[in-house]
Amino acid sequence: MKLDRRGFLAAGAAAALLRPGVAQAVSPLNLGADAADRGIVFGSAFDREIFDDTAYAALLRAQCRIGSLENSLKFDWLKPTGNVADFSASDRLVDFAVESGIRPRGTALIWNDWLPDWLKWTTVLERRSIMEKHIDEVVGRYAGRVQSWDVVNEPFFPPHGIDGGYRKGLWLDAMGPDYIIHAFKRAAAADPKAQLVLNEAFCEQDDELGKSIRPLLLNEVKRLQDAGVKLDAIGFEAHLRPELPYDDQAFVAYVAEIAALGVDVMITELDVNDSHMPDDEAERDAQVAARVHDFLGAVLQVPRVTTVITWHLSDRYSWYRGADWYADQVRAGGGTPGRPVRSHLYDDQLQPKAAAFAARDALKASGPH
What number does CATH give the domain 5-365? Predict the structure, then answer.
């Protein structure tokens, strides 16, 4: 049943009454268990903040069964100055996840964005060798521990004007679209048991961009399967933007079409961009919660949606926080730049907001997966 704004506000008020103190990561919820009851794995992104923020680390342990390393396994973070990786941070993060009972995931193993400057000065032949070495050493190092990889991230971006709608970048320049096939085959060889995922953005949007990417991604799944690639799942980021057109049932139909190809589906980076919502925090919290509830309630209709991962569990570590582009979006939406972000399930004090209860309700209402 769809909850109204008053219901979400009441849930938020109830959560506030349960606060034992701002430094404690205590929650009346167990999202990981509620999801597991339906055959769904719930978790969140995290990264180096857990080294110092013990309360946030405790919250992650309590709520999550899977965790995406937000940055520390990305190419530019591992190899910012040359082709020698520094695994010191990622080793600690993987250890934390394994010891906490959280399945670690690697994000953006190969991505055409955010590559270090030194890679730009390599030749095409060198770049292919660099990619092979990178996949071999990174996936191989964590074989049996990092259980899931976004092998290729965001392969499509039609506004770049590349044939086939591919996202431009150094890997595409070096190998053409077959860099995707090559990356998956190399990852499968480095760890045959790992879950290999093709991750994409924008598809939940019912605007020109979202609708242009959907058929490209569908055809790419077929192309990889025809090439004999081990492709276990498709990841949809789901950085929800309620100010843009959306049609949850149309997206569900598309997700079902993807699933019908024999792959699992993951929601990999869930949050709600609150930039165009009112400054009033209670009103914003209600709108964020309603969007979380409606989106998850819709997409979890597809039995092969196996995983829901938030892009950080708390506003404390939101990627929107302090971003110039987010401040511009707030300004464009008539809000006050610099206001606190309210885009995630838990607030800055690590307490559950209405959105957390909305996610719980959507998970518990789901059928078996």
Answer: 3.20.20.80
